[in-house]
TrEMBL record:
This is Cytosol aminopeptidase. The keyword Metal-binding applies. Cytosolic metallopeptidase that catalyzes the removal of unsubstituted N-terminal hydrophobic amino acids from various peptides. The presence of Zn(2+) ions is essential for the peptidase activity, and the association with other cofactors can modulate the substrate spectificity of the enzyme. For instance, in the presence of Mn(2+), it displays a specific Cys-Gly hydrolyzing activity of Cys-Gly-S-conjugates. Involved in the metabolism of glutathione and in the degradation of glutathione S-conjugates, which may play a role in the control of the cell redox status. GO terms for molecular function: manganese ion binding; metalloaminopeptidase activity. It is found in: Cytoplasm. The lineage of its organism: Eukaryota, Metazoa, Chordata, Craniata, Vertebrata. Its cofactor is Zn(2+); Mn(2+).
Amino acid sequence: MTLYVSLFKPFFFLLHLTEAAAGFDQSLSGKLSELLKISGPELKKGKSRIFYGIHEDFPCVAVVGLGKKNAGVCGAENWDSSKENIRQAVSAGCRLLQDLEVNHVEVDGCGDVQSAAEGAVLGLFQYDQLKAKKTTKVTTQLHGSADLVGWEKGVKYAEGQNLARLLMETPANHLTPTAFANIIEEKLAPHAERAWIEEQKMGAFLSVSKGSEEPPVFLELHYNGSPGSTQAPLLLVGKGITFDSGGISLKPSSSMDVMRADMGGAATVCASIVTAAALKLPVNIIGLAPLCENMPSGKATKPGDVVTARNGKTIQVDNTDAEGRLILADALCYGHTFNPRAIVNVATLTGAMDVALGSAATGVFTNSDWLWEQLHKASVVTGDRVWRMPLFQHYTRQVTESQLADLNNIGKYSRAGGACTAAAFLREFVTAPHWAHLDIAGVMSNKDEIPYLRKGMSGRPTRTLVEFAAGLAHSE
């Protein structure tokens, strides 16, 4: 069998070629430049050309426009436009070659090999595990030998996000709480089951799992990247509802299938820790993922029931579809036992977050300016943005004024400020000075907003969490 190797050649506006593309063109005595000049109008950002038979080693060459040279960080957009342009261009070129059933692609580093690697690996991912006809599997490598370390780093960042996408996309009957835990256990850590959860008096978590035949699982991950350090660990907590029917407060049937991804918080947290381990980041991280289904049955929690969380606070459950905050409450209480340096919880928590920000950014509620700055700085690098939301006492009063218990799991004005009252509820289970709640409901899936991700579950913001952890590893 002959292995055909294809070269992906992005270049800059007005035939300003990247360094690798210029070298390739020189090896062809300027043939690539000439073909570009006569092949049609100038290539704008994201537009492409394919040339065949111009090089004996690379019978198929894709060329994609990168946009303006040295675009840099854009304050208005809160990301590095150069990095985003590279991710988008490389993704487009790789998919173009994948559509031609090319199975190996050499990628131009475009001056930022990590971003190029991310674009290639993220762009080629497609969930087709349950289909008879599979998408062509494409391997990628950096063209030339420049900055192979940066390339491998980008590959690991992208593979981490792809792991989250894989978990989020898998149908709920294939990814039960136990199956989720087993997948992560193969990579990192053991898990605890119902007896341990009961021993920990996690009444809020158990109340959500009661309606399902699937047993709950509490997944605890420890990554000791700096074993000799006296630095307290970073704690990441992810909501792990592997299917959310709404329970007795049943959701509408339309689009309920996407609730297979209601464990997106757990998926991104676990994937980011797997990635941190792959990168050997010098930081200690603990991950917690309460995993269960939220289903209606004769055993399910009923609206108006009162349950007791691990810290002894009672909760009136007026809406069983506001279940994510219940399982996170117990996980946050347990997480404080590790005296963490900072706590970040991640959850597809509220439809209100989707209404507020859509898919542009993850909403962040935090009691710490320092923690916000670290998360924001990381998101500018990755292009997977975050946006700070209010955490006013105004919202706290709406969940603490409960008729039957210490707290109510929904705000007294129901839908008004729903993302904010959910965050206020979670804060009632936090005493740490550096805590952030990331509501990822709006960024859970991708239609066409992120060009280098195919339609489907997005795995966001895995790369931002990894970049954030990497930043902590090198800060006081």
